[in-house]
Amino acid sequence: MSATREGTGNESQTGALTWRIKERAGFTTVEFVGDIEENADFAELKRRLKGSVVFNLAEVRRINSCGVREWVNFVRDLPGVTDLVFTNCSPAIVTQLNMIYNFRGPAKIRSFYAPYVCDVCNKEEEKLLEVQTHFPDRNISHVPEFRCGKPDCALEFDDIPERYLAFLLET
Known about the structure:
- This protein is an alpha/beta fold.
- It has a domain at 11-109: 2-Layer Sandwich (Transcription Regulator spoIIAA), CATH 3.30.750.
- Helix content is 20%, strand content 39%.
- The protein is built from 5 helices and 10 strands.
- A 6-stranded mixed beta sheet has the order 1-2-3-4-5-6. Strands 8-7-10-9 form a 4-stranded antiparallel beta sheet.
- The longest helix is centred in the middle third of the chain and has 12 residues, at 65-76.
- The chain is elongated.
């Protein structure tokens, strides 16, 4: 595992989106931060990616319609990439996975954030769910349960499972 330092050329910005490339043993991780919109230019990133690649999408806050087009074109044509995985998908990414048929391209989804709420404490929280651990058989009718932190409180899934988790049925 190597650390990314300023000036190494491993961090780039295009419009409201930045990314950081981290070379790891056997794969490359790309961490995206910001908004994917019409000014997103993935040409440089596309040229740099090869082999097994993991996209960390936890910090993608928003994607507009032009950004969807740019993203779909990007993930559709990654000639040097042999294996693509999306991890830590933000709710903005999950929304697009559910609405846009080819948003993931050839990627497998490893993990994603899901909304939970405690009605007693009036607390909202996003929980990271692992596809292999929480949905090994792709049964989306049973969502994981979490405790709120107080003895008599529980976090409840704050969406309709069949809608929010529909993208799991496509993998």
